[in-house]
Amino acid sequence: MTRASKRKSDNHTSPSVKSARVDSVRSASSRAATKVQERVDELYTKYANKSSSIIDPDGIEALCSDLQVDHTDVRILMLAWKMKAQKQGYFTQDEWRRGLKALKVDTINKLKKTLPELEREVLKVENFEDFYQFAFGYCLTEEKQKCLDIESTCILIDLVLGLKYQPQVDSFIKFLQSQRDYKVVNMDQWTNFLRFCQEISFPDLENYDTCEAWPLILDNFVEWMKQKPNV
Amino acid sequence: MTMNQMKTIELDEGWNFMQTGIIKLKRILEGNQEAQFSSEEYMMLYTTIYNMCTQKAPHDFSQQLYDKYKQSFDDYISSMVVPSLREKHDEFMLRELVKRWTNHKVMVRWLSRFFHYLDRYFIARRSLPPLKEVGLVCFRDLVYQEFKVNARDAVITQARHFLFWCAYFSCIDVVPRFILIVLRQIDQEREGQLIDRALLKNVVDIFVEIGMEQMDFYQNDFEDAVLNDTAAYYSRKASNWIVEDSCPEYMLKVEECLKKEKERVSHYLHSSSETKLLEKVQNELLVVNTNQLLEKEHSGCRVLLRDEKVEDLSRMYRLFHKIPKGLEHVANMFKQHVTSEGKILVQQAEDAATNKAEKAGGAHEQTFVRKVIELHDKYFEYVTDCFSNNTLFHKALKEAFEVFCNKTVAGSSSAELLASFCDDVLKKGGSEKLSEEAIEETLDKVVKLLVYISDKDLFAEFYRKKLSRRLLFDKSANDDHERVILTKLKQQCGGQFTSKMEGMVTDLTLAKDQNSHFQEYLSQNQAANPGMEFTVTVLTTGFWPSYKSSDLSLPAEMVKCVQVFKDFYQTRTKHRKLTWIYSLGTCHINGKFEQKTIELILGTYQAAVLLLFNSSDKLSYSDIKTQLNLADEDLVRLLQSLACAKYKILIKEPNTKSVSTNDSFTFNSKFTDKMRRIRVPLPPVDERKKVVEDVDKDRRYAIDAAIVRIMKSRKVLGHQQLVMECVEQLSKMFKPDFKAIKKRMEDLITRDYLERDKENPNVFRYLA
C-alpha cells in the first residue's frame, strides 16, 4: 500500500532510475494483483465458516443463492472442477483461489457472468472426459470409498450427461433402478458409460459386442434394452 | 589283313557296299529266307565304316554316313513298316505294331553295330545323339505321325459296337490310333470280356522303351489317355450305380473296381501308373458322389449306424480313408448319430422321472448312468474296430458325449448323477450286486465318463459329500474299492482333485487308531468313565465338507462323555480345537416298551428328543424346542421321523400327517416290532442346493486366482486373450462362463488388481 506512494516518478534514465521505473511497473501490476487477491479472499471470507475457515455446505448454499443458481445445478459441479475441489460440499481457500484465478474473476457478479463460458469450456471435447471422471470422484465422500451407490449414480449421471445424451441416460437410469445385481457402481463402470454413449449407436445398439471388454453392467444393460418391448 | 594300306574309299562306293548289308538285314527282318550274318560279313561292314571315317579329309565321310544311317531307317519305316500297319485294324494292328517294333529293335541293334565307329568319336565331337537313339526316334516320329488321327474320325470309322465311347472322346483331340485301340481293349476287359493281356503288355512296353530311360512318352502320350478314358468310364458307371444301388452295394462295387484296376496295372501297365489310376477311379466313384452316397435315404451312413452294420461301416472307412477329406463327412454323421442316441437316453430318464414323480434319487438315475456307460462302450468299439482308432472318430465320439453328458436329467446335473452312481456302487446295500472284477471295471468306466463332463468340480463336491456319509455312517462296502477309485480319479484329474477325499479316508483310519487309545484311557481311568460305550471320530476340518454344528443341549448322560473325551484329547495334543458335530452322531438306546425292550439305533438328535421323555410323559413342541435349543427346521424333521414315519415311537396330538408347532407328544409305550433292534432313519436334507452354492463360491475364487495369475505374468493383456487363457486354465475343473469372468474382472478392478489401459479400453494392465 504505502510502497507505491514512496516511489517518485522520475524522468532520468539512469540505471537506478530505470530499475525504479521497472519496479514501478512491476509494482503496479503486483498492486493490481494484490487488489484482486484481496477481493478474492474477501469473497472467500464472506462464505467461509467462521470457526473452520472453510466454505462448508451452508456457505455453498449462500454462494449459490448469490449466483442465482440452484445448489444442485451442474454449474456448481463445474465450478468445483475448475477449483479441483477435493471434498464434496466444501471449498478450501486454496481451491477457491485456484478456481477464481483460473476464471479470472474476483467478484460475485463477474463469477456469475462467467458461468456460461465455464459451461462451454467444460463441454469441449478435451475437457469433458476429465470433468466427467472428476464428477464421480467428487461424489465419493468417504475416505477410501471406491464405489457410488445406485441412487447417487442415477442423480449424478442425469446431472452430468442428461443434456448431452438424454435417451441413453434415461434408459440407463431405468435399468439401474430395476436391476438387483449391482448395488454400487465403480469408477471403471462409470467411465465406460461415457464411452458407451460416445461409441455405441442408440437405441439400436447395433455395434455393441459383448465379447469386447465392456464392463458386465453394460452387457446387462444392453441385454435389458433388447428384451424390453419398444418404448 | 592289314588295314593301313587300304586305298581311299569313295562315298558312293562305300555306301553301296553298306547297302548290301542293309538289304540283307531287311530281308532277314521281313522273314525272307536269308542266312544270318557271318562274322566276316560283319567285320567287313564294320571295317568299311571305320575306314570311311578315319580317312583323311576330304574323304572323312562321318557326317554323311551318320545322315545315311538315319535315312536308312526312315526309308525302311516309310516303305515297309507304316504301310503294313496302315492296313491292319484293332487287335491285329497292335500285333503288327509289336512285331514291327521288335524288328525295329533288331535293326537298330545291327545297324548301330555296323556303324559303331561313329558312336566312338564323331557324335561326341559334334554333340549329336548316339546311333541307338537316332534309330529309335525314327520309329517314334514316323509311326506316331502317321497314325495320329483325329479321334472323332476314329470313332466314326470304328463306331460299330463301341458307341459308348462317343461321349468321352470329345475331350481328346489327337491320339495315335493304336492307343485308341488299346483303350478300347481295356474297356472291353472292364466290361468282362477276355482280352490278350500279353499283347497289351507288349504294346505298353513299346512306350516305355521308346522313352529310353525317360518316362515322358509313356506318361504324356499313353498314360494320360488311359487316365482320361478311365475317368470317363467310371464317371458313366457311377451315374448309373449311384441311382440304382444301395450304399453298401455301391461300396462293394467300388472295392471290386479298385481291386481290378490294381490287378490291371500289375498285368500290363507300368507300375508307376498305379497311384494315379486308382486316384482317378476313386475320384469318379467316391469323391464326386460323396454326399449322395453317404446320405442315401434308406441305406446311407445314418442307416448303417442305426442298423449296426459294422462290416459296411468298416468298408466305408476303408474307402473314404484314401480320399482327401473323405472321412470328415462320415465322422460328422457318426457324431450326430451318437449325440442323438445319447439324447434319447436323456429323454428316457426324464420321462421315467416324471412318471415316478415322488421318488428322488431313484433307480432311473442309476439306469441312466448305466446306459450311458453301455452306449460309450458300444461306440468306442466302433471307433477302434470299424474306424481303426482314427483320431477324427475319437474326436467325434468325444464331442457327441460332451453334448448330452452335460444335460440336466430330471433336475439333476450329470455331475450329481455320476456321483450318485458311484455312491450306489460303493455303499453297502447298493442296488447292484456286482463281482469284484465288475466293480473295478464299472468304476474305471465311470472315471472315463468324467472326462466328458465340464463341471468336474461339481462332481468332486457331490462325491465328497456322499463319501463322507459312507465313511461316517459305516456304509462303505469295501475300503479297497474306495481307495481304488480315488487312485483312478487322481490319475485322470490330478492330485488336487482327490487330496481332500484321500484325507477323509485316511482320517478314518487314524480315528480308529485314536479310538483304541481312548478306550485304553477309559479302562485305566475308572472315575472318568461315563459308564456307557462311547466312541469319537476326530475329523480334520479341511478335508471334510462343512457341517452345521448347532448348539444342542445335550442330555446329561452325554455331557459326561464329551467331557471325558475332551480331557483325553488334551493329553494327546494341545494345539487343536475340537468342534462337536452332533448331527453326525449315532446312538443306541434301549426303548423299554410294554411288550418288549427294543434297541433303537438313531441319530444323536433323535436320541436327545427321546431321552427327554424319561423325565416327562408329555411334552409340547415348544417344550422340546426350548429344552433342546434347536431350530424349527431341524426339530420338525426330527419329530417327523419319530412320530409320523414308519416307526411311531412317539404319539403325536393331533394325529395329523406332519408336525406343526402346536403339537404335543407322548411316549408310545405300546410300540413294538418283530425285530429286537431297529434303525430309525432321519431323512437326509437335500444337499444339492448347498453343494451348488459351495461350488459357485469356490469357482469365484478360482476365477479370481486364475485372472491374477495370468495378469501377473503377462502384465498387459487384451480382453479376449485374457478370457481365453482363463477358460483354458480352468478347463480341467469346470467351464467358466464369460459373464462370470467379466464379473470377477470388474471386482478385481475395484480392488485395484487391474486397470484398463488409457489408450485402449480393451486392454488391461496388472497393478502390482
From TrEMBL, chain A:
A GO cellular component annotation in the UniProt record: ubiquitin ligase complex
Top-rank taxon, per record: Eukaryota
Protein name: Defective in cullin neddylation protein
GO molecular function term, any single one: cullin family protein binding
Domain DCUN1 per the UniProt entry, residue ranges: 35-226
Annotated spans, Disordered: 1-33
PANTHER family: DEFECTIVE IN CULLIN NEDDYLATION PROTEIN, RP42 RELATED
Lineage, uppermost ranks: Eukaryota, Viridiplantae, Streptophyta, Embryophyta, Tracheophyta
One of the protein's GO biological processes: protein neddylation
Function: Neddylation of cullins play an essential role in the regulation of SCF-type complexes activity.
Species whose genome carries this gene: Buddleja alternifolia
From TrEMBL, chain B:
SMART domains cross-referenced by the UniProt entry: CULLIN, Cullin_Nedd8
Highest taxon above the source species: Eukaryota
Listed GO CC annotations: cullin-RING ubiquitin ligase complex
GO biological process: jasmonic acid mediated signaling pathway; ubiquitin-dependent protein catabolic process
Residue ranges annotated for the Cullin family profile domain, each copy included: 413-643
Pfam (any one): Cullin_Nedd8
Protein family: Belongs to the cullin family.
Name the UniProt record assigns to this protein: Cullin family profile domain-containing protein
Source organism (scientific name): Buddleja alternifolia
